[in-house]
Amino acid sequence: MRCRMYRVEQVIGGVWGAGGEGGELTVHDPADGSPVATVPVATADEVAKAVEAARGAAAEWTATPPAERAAALHRAADALASTAEELAAATTAEMGKPLGDARGGVEAGIGTLRQYAELGPVRGGRTLHGGAAAIDFMAPEPRGVVAAITPWNDPVAVSCGLLGAALVTGNVVLFKPSERTPATGWLLTKILDSTLPAGVLSLLTGGAEVGAALAAQEVDVVAHVGSTATGRAIAAACARTGAKALLENGGSDPLIVDAGVDPVWAATQAAIGAFANAGQICVAVERIYAHRDVAEDFVDALVERARALRVGPGRDPGTELGPLVDRRHRDHVHGQVTAAVAEGATLRVGGTLPDGPGAFYPATVLTDCRQEMTLVREETFGPVAAVVVVDSFSEALKCAADSPYGLAATVLTPSMSHAQRAWRELPVGTVKVNAVFGGAPGGAAQPRRGSGQGFGYGPELLDEFSTVKTVHIEAPGGGHW
Ligand code: NAD
């Protein structure tokens, strides 16, 4: 049972409730279509004023000792922990994921804030060895004004990463959460803002046009987590203003199922990778290359897993597969599935639109898929496993590498030499061997090609939000040392 309707407010230049002259959006619960939140839409003029106000707050925040900035993040993490349930409920109400997953996202966000609070103050520069009467060093500095534009699929975890790293390194931040999860973004901003000096963090709400207006401003960094098409538009905007573009974008991650693996275990891994969060994870398994030796048993077990998933609203404790984020997205997913079937793919389970309210879509497995199908080449972002049968590990590697994206890949194999070949040969930022998820904390990778540019996570994100000044100091002439 949902208990409240959220009335989102912006914060601009430290003033809550500012602006919103661009109209109002309503967010609907994807489980039943009921309204969840009303959201003000920023005008381009409000966006420009917010950037100006943020720039005005930058000097003081930059001059604040890193340990004080870090203490604010620790306080925010504490506050987040005490409101975790509320934030998880908002996430589930807005985008549909099972409540347990939403809690996991909040926990991850808390962990990230704490990690950056610890790492921020201990960062240093380098000293250089030059002339004996000189001192040379390289000191990190904040970049200045950061625009953080985020998606809806894991809204707390992703936003905490960008906001935590940008703030602890001394930047002021304009935060534009997804128009599909604005109440979650608003609750998170209220928590962070309560621990920060007024004006250091601003919240702008609205849709793509608000993000575009922000990316067009003369900020110092535009950090975007979201789709590849948006990332490319942001890169073009940054090329015009000179801002740095940090882009963590879409993917079409392959899973290779090698000969010799236990097909039932492989199917469990594939099901987690393809169906968790209804497939709405950037590193979800999107396409599967199964060796002919194990393909049949593997597909049978995967179909069984898909059938066994408990479907329902995310707020029901037993739910394993919630709805998709909305019907617009469901149309996109179903469009790719029906196109693949029209091109010769075979539906083994799922693939039909259910009756009833909400944006539910069944866990779907297709075989007889081919590399050139849009379902295989492009990001689906739904609970869909597209299986291509291959005759050798080399063929699987070749197909896996053939993609406009380069986010991550998983290989299930009993062979150490195949594992070694996989991590050396696959042109992606992250390679996982024998587990679809579960990387070590602090992990960061550089996405490639259509998946973006720059580190979006881990300690390296602190460097992305910093610049370096090199200083050379010599003794003055005239013997004044
Ligand atoms: P999206 O790019 O449509 O939206 C993300 C944000 O960008 C939103 O706040 C949106 O309003 C804003 N936006 C949209 N158009 C814009 C424009 N022209 N200029 C500036 N801002 C604009 O993405 P989404 O649908 O919210 O998220 C799903 C996508 O995010 C998937 O492709 C997924 O793979 C990707 N994603 C990637 C990662 C990663 O780490 N690589 C993590 C999570 C999600």
From TrEMBL:
Protein name: Succinate-semialdehyde dehydrogenase / glutarate-semialdehyde dehydrogenase
UniProt xrefs under PROSITE patterns: ALDEHYDE_DEHYDR_CYS
Superkingdom of source: Bacteria
GO molecular function per UniProt: oxidoreductase activity, acting on the aldehyde or oxo group of donors, NAD or NADP as acceptor
Cleavable signal peptide: none
Classification via InterPro entries: Ald_DH/histidinol_DH, Ald_DH_C, Ald_DH_CS_CYS, Ald_DH_N, Aldehyde_DH_dom
Record carries keyword Glycoprotein: no
CDD domains according to UniProt: ALDH (cd07078)
Domain Aldehyde dehydrogenase: 23-471
Native organism taxonomy: Bacteria, Bacillati, Actinomycetota, Actinomycetes, Micromonosporales
Keywords per UniProt: Oxidoreductase
